[in-house]
Design brief:
The protein has about 210 residues and is α+β, with helices and mostly antiparallel strands. It has two domains: about 1-105, Winged helix-like DNA-binding domain superfamily/Winged helix DNA-binding domain (Arc Repressor Mutant, subunit A), CATH 1.10.10.10; about 105-205, no CATH class. It has ten helices and four strands. A four-stranded antiparallel β-sheet has the order 3-2-1-4. Helix 3 (about 75-80) packs antiparallel against helix 4 (about 85-100), helix 5 (about 105-120) packs across helix 7 (about 135-145) and helix 8 (about 150-160) packs across helix 10.
């Protein structure tokens, strides 16, 4: 098998085998391969070359994705496959895991904090969102056990978003259902409403 190559746009190098296009790599990586134009390579050597090129392409794409935001391992794997890097995805992601760039526990902690702080989600909804991102349930449980989901936070959400709608039974039911969708349990909502009632009673008494 005869390997030839030619310069493409930017830093791209196009590799051909026996006159037919086979692979594209970046110039820096190509230089590290020490390949010569017109050299003969075996099928095994070409298979190894193809494998390393696929891993590098998947790795570069993964790094680009991670530069925008953190990802879970499974989420990153899924995105790489969707973008056409399925052949090198697994090895590339494992390399990032081993180097610490992908850490499901760190991702879980950061994303859970974001969902609670910015969206006001309760534990059940946070669990659901993290699971959809590909985080294992054991990791989710361990991280969320460290986080306090107190009724005072829920009381603030009710005051800001739903209190004005709870003037009649229909409004109260809609608000209750909305809070359930946010991931709060019946008991958590009930406790928050009771705390609000106690707070209101204290305010009236102080006056």
């Amino acid at each position: 098998m005869k390997l030839t190559y030619k310069k493409g746009k930017g830093d791209k190098i196009h590799i051909s085998i026996d006159g037919e296009y086979a692979l594209t790599v970046d110039e820096m990586y190509f230089a590290s391969l020490y390949l010569k134009d017109g050299q003969e390579i075996s099928e095994q050597e070409y298979a190894e070359l193809e494998k390393t090129v696929n891993i590098r392409r998947a790795y570069n794409c993964a790094v680009s994705l991670l530069s925008r935001r953190d990802h879970s391992k499974k989420e990153l794997m899924r995105k790489l496959k969707e973008k056409g890097y399925s052949k090198g995805a697994e090895a590339a992601v494992e390399k990032l895991v081993n180097s610490g760039y992908v850490d499901d526990e760190r991702f879980c902690r950061l994303y859970a904090s974001e969902l609670i702080r910015l969206k006001g989600y309760g534990r059940k909804r946070v669990e659901q969102e993290l699971y959809l991102k590909g985080v294992d349930r054991e990791i989710i449980s361990g991280v969320l056990d460290e986080i306090s989901f107190d009724t005072y936070r829920l009381s603030d959400i009710i005051k800001r978003k739903y209190l004005a709608k709870m003037t009649d039974e229909k409004g109260r039911q809609k608000a209750f259902n909305a809070l359930l969708r946010l991931g709060y349990s019946y008991s958590e909502i009930r406790d928050a409403l009771e705390n609000m009632q106690e707070e209101f009673t204290c305010e009236v008494y102080d006056e």
